[in-house]
TrEMBL record, chains A, B:
SUPFAM superfamilies: FMN-binding split barrel. The lineage of its organism: Bacteria, Bacillati, Actinomycetota, Actinomycetes, Micrococcales. It comes from Microbacterium enclense. It comes from the Bacteria. It holds the Pfam family Pyridox_ox_2. This is Pyridoxamine 5'-phosphate oxidase family protein.
Length: 223, 223
């Protein structure tokens, strides 16, 4: 895989030693997230909304309603900034100044393209596979009306930066701080609870494999 | 408390029944989050970066380095959009089309002001209290040099919208879907693991109360 390019938009300006240009690291951040924040400029002002995401090869997919002004502007070529953040923990240094968060984040700049009708179902299945692996096989197929009501956008993972301080130390030797004060890290992670069955579900219907699998993965287990 | 105003920037256009105009709901979303995404317009394009946040009354506080181009632009009056998202779960409907995420999100529009030097320490302590409650009392005070290197910005929680589908049903009666397919929800939440002590810490130093408290709160316990 080629490295991520350093451009005026992707060169990390603050704490540049946390920048990672390995494309695999970008994929890891995107693949490890369910949601991201998508920003555009509207009437000269920034507007940023949460979206579900899924990677499809070298692109990230997002979807919305064909009735959404926000998505229609993106479909019409408005430049976007997609920000994916994984918060991994809190770093408790011996001073507030050096305290910070443990995180990985990806920032993707670009212009999205509309997935054409003939590729829309495949793209939505790829998105579904990212968000709810295995679920598509458990439910009915999408209808033509549903497909028509959905706008699927493809953003190339071309001009992107990754910042990752997951492996950084909480503190540096020789910083003059008092070592009798505790310093360290509080790791944070997302876990899944027990699935909650919808009351309309026919009694005795078991929780399906897709849900059990996501529960296990989110809770740190292996499949 | 006054309700959140409905303006062209805050009126939710998609799924407006999820909009909440109760100011307390906005505070709850902000108070329940450690990080958010802050977006600006730079050279006509959106740029959105993750930031730590803390609420101080009717404002949200963010901080950065005085050397940061991004924060300097905000300090100079660039309009911002702050997006706070709490992902609460995955909604498995009986179709992919109706499947979605369970979330709360707040979107705040405005122009931030620079916290003046004389109020900076108090503001940073408020931010610290949000991110790491009780920690400030366990570490040394901030130095003048540290304060000088830090830019603290105050964004009014004035023009803001909240969208919350936490209480929405996974499905509607009479939607014609097959009730023998399982539908329901997989709840997601952030939990804290065991604190990891920095190797430079003097042996035997106990994990302090602030860290234990955040561990307990993040893991769903009560203080």
């Amino acid at each position: 895989m080629t490295d991520l390019p350093l451009t005026p938009l992707t060169r990390v300006r603050r704490l540049p030693h946390y920048q990672v240009t390995d494309r695999a690291a970008l994929y890891e951040v995107v693949d490890g997230a369910l949601a991201a924040t998508l920003a555009i400029v509207r009437d000269g002002r920034p507007v940023a909304l949460p979206v579900g995401i899924g990677r499809d090869g070298d692109d990230v997919l997002v979807h919305g309603s064909t009735g959404s002004d926000f998505f229609r502007r993106i479909a019409a070529g408005a430049p976007v900034c997609l920000t994916v953040t994984q918060l991994l923990g809190l770093k408790y240094a011996r001073s507030l100044f050096d305290s910070s968060m443990r995180y990985r984040c990806a920032v993707v700049h670009g212009v999205a393209s509309v997935v054409p009708a003939e590729d829309k179902e495949r793209a939505l299945l790829a998105l579904s596979e990212h968000l709810m692996p295995g679920r598509a096989a458990e439910v009915r197929p999408m209808t033509g009306r549903e497909l028509a009501a959905t706008l699927v956008l493809r953003l190339p993972l071309a001009e992107a930066s990754v910042k990752d301080n997951a492996a950084s130390a909480v503190e540096e030797d020789g910083d003059g701080e008092d070592r009798t004060v505790w310093a360290g890290e509080l790791p944070l992670r997302v876990v899944a609870g027990e699935p909650v069955t919808s009351p309309q579900t026919v009694g005795g219907t078991p929780v399906p494999a897709s849900v059990r699998r996501s529960q296990l993965v989110a809770s740190g287990g292996t499949v």
